[in-house]
Description:
single chain, alpha+beta, ten-stranded antiparallel beta sheet, 7 helices
Amino acid sequence: MGEPGVGFEYPAKAVSWLKRDVLLFANSIGCTADELHFLYELHPNFAVFPTYAIILPFRGTNIGVIDFYASQRQTPIPGIPPLDPKRVVDGERKIEFYKPLPTSSEGKQFEIRAKVLGVYDKGKGTVVETENLLIEKGSAEVYTRATGSGFFVGQGGWGGPKGPSTPSFLPPKNKKPDVVYTLQTNNESALLYRLNGDYNPLHATPEPGQKMGFGGAIMHGLFSWNTTCHGLVKELGGSNPANIKEFQARFASPVKPGDKLVTQIWRTGDKDSQDWEEIRFVTSIEGGKVCLSNGRAKMKVVGGKPKL
């Protein structure tokens, strides 16, 4: 008998976006005025920041405000107890970029096809690993493949498999970072980022975070994940979205509004036959804990200043 839930496919979900949406996303993750190709729709090289695809499962085709809890009540996974979406945090996320997203989905039909890769009982909670493919229906082309895990807090102990250990991607030993990227958040950072479609109340009002033991509202895990990816693309990739192929990180600890994020970035020098280099990174709260660990990317390194 297979492990519970593995291979279960969710119903395909239509997704769409406008130029305005990709402009908002770029603003919310820290793109700056020297990167107008992400921030100005009439720029000759106007482009979608590549991790925008990670937000699409949250918003679907909805251009308005979304009831987050209702939207997360997905089809139950067979063979496991019901899980409460009001008590879930991100575990780890990886995205692979196959084709650049158009600046608007207009004229095409895109959908997310999602399936379960694993469901693990960790005692203090349950981990659900999923795969999301962003597909253009007309051509059946895959634009991005995202894999990730969600940790359902306090919802373990149902006798399921413990799950395998995950690989570690550590920085090179005894080597100072090649680049350090910083981002100062403020009390409004999460309130802006949520307008991309991730309307989880955990990031807007203190009550959910207090119930989950965080002491109040926290930043979206994907805010730190996306802003870190932007830092890598800006500092190593010349702000050219074509210079990143893969990006992944593990969510290690929560970030509070007002924290300063510090990302240490290491080049490894390990390149494949197409010149994609392995990059390692760690993002921490200044003076505090690591918030993104296991950081890894595959990039073409061209330097630190925007080239577009």
